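Hey Z.,

So I finally got round to the protoporphyrin IX containing FE thing we talked about over coffee. Here's the setup:
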Amino acid sequence: MVLRWLIAVLVMELLFALASSQKRPSHYPDHPPLKQYPERPITPDYYPPATGVKPNYHNPYASSYKPVPVEYPTPQKKYCPNIGGLESRCRPAKDCAVWYDAVRATPGTACILGNGKGHGLCCPDIPINGRYQAPFKKPNPCDEGIALDPHVEHIDLVAVNEAALAGQSQMESMIATEKRLTQKNIVVRKGSGSFTHSWVFFHSTADSVKISNSSLYGVFAVMQLSRRYRIKPEQIECVANRFRLRDTILFDTCPIHPNCDERTLASPFRTMNGSCNNAHPPGHTPWGLPKTQYQRALAPAYADGVWMPRLAKDGSQLPPPRLLSLSVIRDIDVPSDSDSTFVMQYGQFIDHDMLETMESKSADGLPVPCCTDEGNFLSEEDLSHGKCIPIEIPKDDPFYSKFRQRCMQFARSAPSCRTDGRLGHVEQMNQNTHFLDLSGLYGSDDKVAAELRTFEKGTLKVLRRPRHGYHHGMDLHPPDNDTDVDCALSRAVTGIDPPEEVKCFRAGDNRINVTPYMVASQTVFLREHNGVADLLATLNPHWDDERLYQEARRILIAQMQHITYNEFLPIVIGRAKMQQLGLLPLQHGFSRDYDENVNPSILNEFAAAAFRFGHSLVPGRQDLINQRRVKERDILLRQHFFKTQETYTPGNLDKFLIGLATVPGQRVDNFFTEELTNHLFEEEGKGFGMDLVSLNIQRGRDHGLPGYNAYRVLCGLPRAEEFHDLLDVFPPRIVEKFEFLYSSVDDIDLFIAGVSERPVPGALVGPTFQCIIADQFLRLKRGDRFFYDLIGQTGSFTEEQLNEIRKTSYSRLVCDNSHVKSIQPLFFKAESELNPVMDCESFESIPRMNLYPWKEADTGASVWNTAEDGVKWSPNCDFEGYNIGSPLRVIDGGQCGRKCIDTRGCNAFWSKDGWCSLKDIPKGLRETKSENSICGFLPWQL
Ligand code: HEM
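And the result:
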């Protein structure tokens, strides 16, 4: 028995080394002659030569900008044109977001809103959603008529346990390798680009490291089984899947999730970790929790059926990702003629909400070195821990050769415990809640959430800016005092010593710090939370901190979901696809399509390829544009990854926000900024960073994603038999490149193909990414019982509340949570005659949610205090900038209202004869409780 054991371990070591060996450059086949990739042009200004016509976007910040006067028709009874044969009517622009392309294509669609005050757009009602369409079917490799070889039919639990024991010694040898690396001082050096990638970007908690490292036992067991019994890759999943982990000696390597209890199911609030968001049957591992696996649209394509990255169809190595990146990707600026840069930024913001892949770490939680610090490959022995698949850089790489770099760090994503509790191929781990629940702001578990709270009046911790006192418009995220990452800029960049106060920000997801644009867009949500919590406290003085926090969080998540489905998704996947899948937001009423059988978890294809479409939209510079829409300056991305300093300067956050709204966005194409393809996470002074395109391609292989052709079929396109069959969705020059680089049309990687597809009309992405992204957002809607417009759930809003939520737009959030004074109503769309910059005080054009429907039944008159002279005031009157509780006798207009007392349309108060009243009570609001009192409550919108 012992002998059998020893032999098994030795054989396994040998095989594992073989499996790992594909990481080394010597195993890459000879690749096409070296001069196949012209040097990437880096000049940013390029206009498509085919037409010779400049894109017709309005680029106001480039010259001295004066707002274009928009000529609006005089209000008439009926002046909106038909759009696509449908009757349209004048509405606030955010209600026309899903129609925007059709509105632009139809003349005469700018209009004056009914009250004659605001500018709006003509558009039809939001179309009725298509009939129920099911998400992709769960792939089951054993369903596909795979016959097992007779010798594997007999594999039993004893054999599995033997393999698991062998796997344990494999684990020990892996840990020994990791220790040896540390002893040899082969580490990922702090401050290097690789360190920023592996440690700062791919942050991991001790808990995730523990789970992922212990789930490796199951992986190694299956690998051993496969090798011992020579199980064919296509059979391994069927064989291993017959065994439940809990029946093997590895029963305790994965956590057990408790069933949903009655109390949680009855709560109107989401749990912090998303448990019970999808009510699952008892005993079933819940879906969508942090530190659980991604699901798949297609069964994985691992070379060994377990974890080895995919090989070409003919068994050779696939082309190195950097070669693909060099050959297919260019740095050319082709601005969108209708979108703003915010499409990109919002995409990244919700990406951080939905997912954070766990990258492998060593047993003691440190980044795993995959290359030498000098950019060379490690020896075979040093790589034998098997957690690396470093990226080969061609010897004559036009960029990296200048720096003698041959090896790009790439640690594999960590394995996750499988949701089915069985043995099988590797699944990757998402560390965040999979749901669209603002976990990037609030955190994905109770511990992080608690660290971010003040536990006072429902608010989140902030860094309050000096001199601005109690004003959310200036608050920043609190500093992250637990990190040793330095988010300040060096003297070499700024000419001054790094200020001490500059820290990385602390949030639900640490990638908030990745760029200043990201900081700015998330800070708006932070401030909105605290603003909403304040107002709820004023409306409901009897609510305690917990209630205020949860109610504000529930509202914020609903606002974010509304923005996502109303403003963002129509741009990315197009209105038609949304209608087909039932994803269009409703104009009124509730949706009823929650289905507990729909798995809301993030698809591996979405995380590792499709939703990375946004990388093509990233501009190389981030612009600071002032209130007059004049560009003041820009910052170069390579100097500002994980540098927050710019956002500390008062006023800069506003300028970044205006930059996001003003700079035209990019198109999804094979054009990427060099800031990402040569300078990602560049270490200061080095001159080079990493290549995000190479990382994305390698990540797809690491996660076992099948080739692009398989996804064409999944998405309803015909399978390409030959390369020229791809001409249906690719430009000829891309097909030529693919044909040159790949030996089979089945080999093409999903990411590089997805970004190179011609966009679907009315959408930003091509048909394959469109179909994967649409399926994901269908799951996130239908598999979430807290989805904001659902009826009949414990967390459902009342119709009145829901109608207020529907008033949300990102432009309004910016207006209310920054010092930006004017903005276009559709933040995701470039400023234009249809989407002109409007005063933030124009509540008709940029409506504001009113929180009054959240006021609970009046708790009695005791909430009012009466001063000596009879002036009534509320003890909870504690508005932005002022606490009017003390100077009652000398109240004047400026003191008893909001800071914006003298501005038009503001819900301000004024005083007369000792009574403080609303300055200007609009029609229909005369009955509000705040009349004739100082500030019983402050309606959110008047
Ligand atoms: C300056 C902007 C951005 C930077 C620096 C950046 C950087 C990165 C990096 C380094 C990765 C990990 C690559 C790897 O697998 O090793 C990544 C992953 C990803 N990025 Fe971006 N990205 C940016 C913008 C965006 C945008 C705009 C989107 C979407 C619209 C996006 C979506 C994603 C997704 C979905 C992933 C996978 C995340 C995960 O697995 O945890 N990114 N990005």
